[in-house]
Fold:
Amino acid sequence: MKSKINLTVELLKELIPEDVKLPEPKKTSIRDLPDKERRAYKARKQAERRAVLKERAENGSVKFDAKTTREALADAAIMLLASGAPGSEAVEAYLRNVFADQVGAPLTIKARAQLGQLKPKLLKHVRAARS
Structure:
């Protein structure tokens, strides 16, 4: 396949007048770098990424991933149950569906949330962000 491409390029070059200077192709891809340079580049980028993540963590930011998303949603449900705010009925209905064969589970979860036994995990980050 490469030979066909090279042949096509050579044929196209023959059609271009000699006085026209063709731009040299630039190596823009990391894959085109020699191994040593590519490893150095990747190491530098990884160090930069880790520094940014460390700075975010120090400033109270939470990494956005599946785990923290679930924790944030769980925190919201816990706070709704604890406060009885609008929307808590939907959380209670969901818990009743999930624990349909364990009638007391939703009531126990709600009671634990109201007593402060179920604590939101990410609430400290919300407070830090507001400050």
